[in-house]
Amino acid sequence: MKLSVTLKYLIGGCFEMEITAEEMKKTMQKIYDLLDEVTPVNFDCGVLCGEVCCAYDEGEYRNKDLVLYLLPGEELMYEDSDYFDVYYIDPKELDYPRSWKDDVFIVECNNPPHCDRSIRPIQCRTFPLVPHISKDGQLHLILDENEFPYECPIIRDHIKLNDDFVQVTYKVWKMLISNPNVYSLILFDSRRRDNKRKGYEIVI
Ligand code: SF4
Ligand code: SF4
C-alpha cells in the first residue's frame, strides 16, 4: 500500500544505543518478520478499493508524487531493489520537529500496487493503524480517515481488524518509539491531530 505525503510521521529504528548497520538491518528484519505473521483482515482488502492506498492518483496527490517515509534504518533494506527508488530529504524541508537532525529517507514504488512485499516499508505493514500518543503519554493505535486523501473501506465500513494484527502492530510501535526521534515525531503529529479536532477512533 502507498501512503500519501501527509503520512510522514512513522520513523523509527536505531533505538537508544548506537549499533552497526548490520545490527540495524537485523533489527529491521525482525520487525518485518513479526509483521509478516499477521494481516489486518483475513481477506484481500485491496479488492474492496482497487488497492487505492498503493496507487491513489487524483487531485493534488498524483501517483508519481506519492512516496513512503521510512523509519530510521529501514533504508538499509533497500540497497538493491528494482521495485523501489530511495531518496533522502533534509528534515528542514519537511514539517518535522526541530529536534530531528538526521536525513529523512523516502521510497518511491516503481510499479504500484506491485512490489517486493518482503521489503515493503513498516508504514505499509501497519496500515491502516496509525500510532498516536495521548496527552497523558500513552501510546495508542488509531484509525483516522483525515490522514489520507483517499477512502479506506476498512475505516469507512468499520471492518474489524484481526486482534493479532492489532497486538503485534502495537508491540512494534512500542519498540519504534524507543527511538527519541520517532517518539518526538509521533508526539508532534499527535498534538497537531488533537488540535485539529477532526476526530479519530482509538483501537487500542
Ligand atoms: S510498497 Fe508495495 S504495498 Fe506498499 S505502497 Fe508500495 S506497492 Fe503498495
Ligand atoms: S481497504 Fe484500506 S488498507 Fe485495504 S487496500 Fe484498501 S485502502 Fe488499503
Keywords:
204 residues, globular, three-stranded antiparallel β-sheet, alpha+beta, binds iron/sulfur cluster
What would a concise description of this structure say?
By secondary structure, the chain is of the alpha+beta class. It contains 7 helices and 6 strands; from the N terminus they run H-H-H-E-E-E-H-E-E-H-H-H-E.
> Could you tell me the mean pLDDT?
86
Biggest beta sheet attributes: 3 strands, antiparallel
Order of helices and strands: HHHEEEHEEHHHE
Helix/strand class: alpha+beta
Strand percentage: 5-15%
* Beta strands, count: 6
Shape summary: globular
What Rg, in angstroms, do the CA atoms define? 16 Å
Number of helices: 7
Strand order of the largest sheet: 1-3-2
Helical content class: 25-40%
How many domain modules? Answer: 1
Report on the structure:
This protein is of the alpha+beta class and about 200 residues long. The chain has one domain (about 5-200). The protein is about 30% helix and about 10% strand. The protein has helices at about 20-35, 45-50, 50-55, 120-125, 155, 165-175, 180-195; strands spanning about 70, 85-90, 105-110, 130-135, 140-145, 200. The strands form 2 sheets. It has a 3-stranded antiparallel beta sheet, with no helix packed on it. A hairpin with a 5-residue loop joins strand 4 (about 130-135) and strand 5. The protein starts with 20 loop residues before the first helix and ends with a strand. Bound molecules: iron/sulfur cluster (2 copies). One iron/sulfur cluster binds next to loops.
